[in-house]
Design goal:
The chain has 352 residues and is an alpha/beta fold. It is built from 14 helices and 9 strands. The strands form 2 sheets. A 7-stranded mixed beta sheet has the order 5-4-3-6-7-9-8, with helices on both faces. Strands 1-2 form a two-stranded antiparallel ribbon. Helix 2 crosses helix 3 and helix 8 packs parallel to helix 10. The chain binds S-adenosylmethionine.
């Protein structure tokens, strides 16, 4: 063996950080579900006993949790007083569900995949799929909570204005379909922003559609914002001014079939807005922290989801613009362009 000790040490340093992060993930989910972050954010500096008292939890567990959080930089500790608190930045990211930097939803999503690991390993062996509906429910809720802050921050203010002529139509009164809508976060944000337009969200996953309906009622938009169980390949209705797919085209088994269906469902002057994970076209250009998040999520969620459906194209969550263009043009669209991007999202626009 010819091991370079410095190279090995560098790798093991990385491993310690990753191992800590892996254990940390479930603790973020626990802190989020038990309200520990939110209680810390409102209480200010707290002892473990005070935080346990405020949250109806057990001091010994909370003390250990706080120490792990402080070791990871998610909570701040003062040894002089033995108290813990959240800085403004930590509270913004950990205790405010709609802040653009909210992170517990992402951990809820990621930790859910560990619960399903055996199913995915079996799919590696058999080549079969694992449908979205076969996952732990934390995947559905975690996905919504991970993506919603980005939609609040970007959708109305920057993504829609980047599309040709779409905001004017929405302001005047347009018909919109949000396909693969999950819990309907994007659909409801759109309905709140454009009171003259009507919105319908479609998803094949019935439990998600039920959550979306309740959320629309709570948001006071259910008259103009409805939800139906339907597949991307055959959802009902024609003459839509805008059809939107948020982070779901690559999860579908037959994205070309979906594209062909969107084409016939759109008005002749309509727009298909596709939001997909940010990716470059070449693998080597995605070997970075964002690519690591998406390739790993894709292995555990998106690729098995696509494999579970007819055709089973398995685009993957790092398909890149060129592969997405192929899908859209194969579906019969003639115009396709990148409208805008963020570090996590590609926003694409297709026209008949
Ligand atoms: C990653 S989630 C995104 C959900 C939502 N658009 C969002 O941004 O929060 C992918 C969604 O696509 C849905 N989906 C997958 N294949 C589908 C298909 N063929 N037709 C309709 N929905 C589908 C799943 O049920 C899931 O809700």
């Amino acid at each position: 063996m010819n091991i370079n000790q410095a190279t090995l040490d560098q790798f093991l340093g990385r491993f310690v950080s990753d191992l800590g992060a892996t254990f940390h993930a479930a603790n973020v989910v626990i802190g989020d579900k038990l309200g520990l972050y939110k209680a810390l954010a409102t209480a200010g500096p707290c002892s473990s006993a005070e935080l346990a008292e405020r949250t109806g939890t057990t001091e010994r567990y909370v003390r250990e949790w706080l120490r792990g959080q402080a070791a990871g930089g998610y909570v701040t500790y003062d040894p002089a007083t033995d108290r813990y608190w959240l800085t403004e930045e930590q509270a913004f990211a950990l205790a405010q569900d709609d802040s653009p930097a909210f992170v517990p939803g992402a951990f809820q999503l990621a930790a859910s995949t560990v619960k399903d690991e055996a199913k995915i390993a079996e799919a590696f062996r058999t080549g079969g799929g694992v449908g979205w509906h076969e996952h732990h429910r934390d995947l559905f809720e975690g996905t919504e909570r991970f993506f919603r802050p980005g939609y609040i921050a970007n959708l109305v203010d920057s993504w829609l204005p980047a599309l040709d002529g779409v905001t004017a139509k929405l302001e005047a009164g347009a018909r919109v379909a949000d396909v693969g809508c999950g819990h309907g976060a994007s659909t409801i944000i759109l309905a709140q922003a454009y009171p003259n337009s009507i919105f319908v969200g479609f998803d094949y996953h019935e439990p998600s559609i039920e959550v979306a309906r309740k959320a629309a009622a709570e948001a006071g938009v259910s008259e103009r914002c409805t939800f139906q169980v339907a597949r991307a390949q055959d959802f009902p209705g024609t003459g839509y001014d805008l059809v939107a797919f948020f982070d779901c085209l690559h999860d579908m088994g037959d994205p070309v079939g979906a594209a062909a269906h969107v084409l016939q469902a759109l008005d002749e002057n309509g727009t298909w807005m596709i939001v997909e994970p940010f990716a470059h076209d070449r693998v080597e250009d995605n070997l970075n922290p964002v690519g690591r998040v998406y390739y790993n999520a894709s292995t555990l969620i998106c690729t098995p989801a696509s494999a579970s459906q007819e055709v089973g194209l398995c685009l993957g969550a790092q398909a890149g613009e060129a592969a997405l263009r192929d899908v859209v043009l194969s579906g019969g669209f003639t115009r396709f362009q990148r409208a805008t991007e963020t570090p996590f999202n590609l926003v694409l626009e297709a026209r008949p």
